[in-house]
Amino acid sequence: MAAIQVQDLRKTFKVQKNREGLKGAFADLFKREYTEVTAVKDISFTIPEGEICGYIGENGAGKSTTIKMLTGILVPTSGVLSVGGYVPYEEREKFVRNIGVVFGQRSQLWWDIGVIESFQLLRKVYRVSEADYKKRLDELVERLALQELLNRPVRKLSLGQRMRCELVAALLHNPSILFLDEPTIGLDIVVKSEIRDFLKDMNREHGTTILLTTHDLQDIEALCSRVIMLDDGRIIYDGGLEELKQRWGTGREVLFQFGSATKLGQLNHWTDGMPVTWSAENDLNAKAWIPLDLNVSDVLGRVVGQADITDIKIIETNTDDIVRSIYQSGSAEKPEEARAEQDGKEVVHV
């Protein structure tokens, strides 16, 4: 069953045009001029129950606007959407009981009161029974190690501590769908890792559907099997992360460190017949460039046992570089695929 269904979703804003100079400012007092800006342009996607999906794009691509429509904060200009079986902006009261939301740059906790008091207020907002609240709170507090933070005012928490509390606040009513908008922004690597582990456990144990927007692609790699990529309000890619790497990745590097001198000619001889490109700084350090369609183990099998190897390092496809290349081109099609399509050749798309 689908947790989120979106069909031809569009959002257009009217933006005031400010005329220049004192005369223009005076004219704006009496007659304002507007221009239309379309932030989301007829997008469609379906997210099944229990999936963790990454929703990524550059600043201004339309990510946050989409999230706000999916959570009922904004009303779409056109299109159809269903979240947990509800239309968010029409069935607000019933709908919010099924979702949790964490905005990395906004708080749903009360700034000057203790964390536990914020949780108690949210229990009443979501109409959670005392027994269910206590059971859920105990589970979340233990999992995120918040015992010492419960009586502190929110304003005295570090950013990492606050974000852990924000997650508890969003999950107190046990929602089936969780929206995360930049949940790890500004956090150190230790806290990021803790939050990622927690989200994976929540998904595995409770089947929570998670839609995650982030600029940190390590969040995507750690959590998501599927990626929806947005550019200028349009979806340019919807598919698996590994498929994206296969489509755009150019290969892998394997760095070898030898205990004794090993000539470049020997390395080329051992991998003769394989599409491997060797380069070397000196006789003790060499680099093999291996295309994606060749198994690294096959190359290692040719070299290990022949040479005195002291260290091997495999450098996989860099997701940041891949995504950057896609944004620069404005399409998730590789350049040669786009040319082939224009030439009338058959191209298989993800």
Automatic annotation (TrEMBL):
Coiled coil: none
Swiss-Prot/TrEMBL keywords: ATP-binding, Nucleotide-binding, Transport
Pfam families found in the cross-reference section: ABC_tran (PF00005)
Lineage: Bacteria, Bacillati, Bacillota, Bacilli, Bacillales
Domain of life of the native organism: Bacteria
GO molecular function: ATP binding; ATP hydrolysis activity
Protein name: ABC transporter ATP-binding protein
UniProt source species: Paenibacillus agri
Entry-linked InterPro entries: AAA+_ATPase (IPR003593), ABC_transporter-like_ATP-bd (IPR003439), ABC_transporter_ATP-binding (IPR050763), P-loop_NTPase (IPR027417)
Residues in ABC transporter domain copies: 24-257
SUPFAM superfamilies given in the database record: P-loop containing nucleoside triphosphate hydrolases
